[in-house]
Amino acid sequence: MTVTLKVDNREDLTQSNTRKIRHNGMIPAVVYGNDREPTTISVNSLELLKTVRDEGRNAIISLDVNGESVDVMLHDYQVEPIKGELLHADFFVVNMSQEMDVEVAVHLTGESVGVKDGGVLQQPLYHLAVRAKPANIPEEISIDVTDLAVGDSITIGDLKSGRDYEILEDDNTTVVTVLPPDGGAEQDEVEAPEEIADADSEASNEDENKE
């Protein structure tokens, strides 16, 4: 899905004009990539934030630049550290017929039977490297963990079938697993001193027999 954002051309690059742009609820931005000459623009900060929130970081955005519709993705942005306001954005021009590599967030759904039995859900990967044409890039990769029992795992190889994009991670890489309950580790810790005491007792008996 492509979202359209209206932008204004920005030819005056002075600091005073930049302050004026931000005062009016806009932020300075640059459009570049795919052999296109960089173009300076300004875009409404609230509309951009809403687009990213609703459609995801990898959303395809159509910008009206000098009367031309340009398909882009948000490549980078700067945020004011205290107020958290957007300061600047970089848009990368995409070729809708050409594959590109991006990172996509992993979202877990459901409650695993292993967790209900006392297991601990562990998620080593929160983002996956994906290769796809821009229109096929998913907003997120959802994984249902409902059937995961204690000791079960989901690997990259389990996710690769039936998708219109390619996951670039190794097939054997674990995305999510359910570890055994902590009780087993605590029991080992309790039994360990007794094992040490038994070993010391055996060693003492051997020394007495030698004498």
Automatic annotation (TrEMBL):
Residues 185-211 have a biased composition (Acidic residues). Residues 180-211 are annotated as: Disordered. One of its GO terms (biological process) is translation. Residues 5-91 form the Large ribosomal subunit protein bL25 L25 domain. One of its GO terms (molecular function) is structural constituent of ribosome. It comes from the Bacteria. Keywords: Ribonucleoprotein, Ribosomal protein, RNA-binding, rRNA-binding. Residues 100-181 form the Large ribosomal subunit protein bL25 beta domain. Part of the 50S ribosomal subunit; part of the 5S rRNA/L5/L18/L25 subcomplex. Contacts the 5S rRNA. Binds to the 5S rRNA independently of L5 and L18. This is one of the proteins that binds to the 5S RNA in the ribosome where it forms part of the central protuberance. Belongs to the bacterial ribosomal protein bL25 family. CTC subfamily. This is Large ribosomal subunit protein bL25. It comes from Radiobacillus deserti.
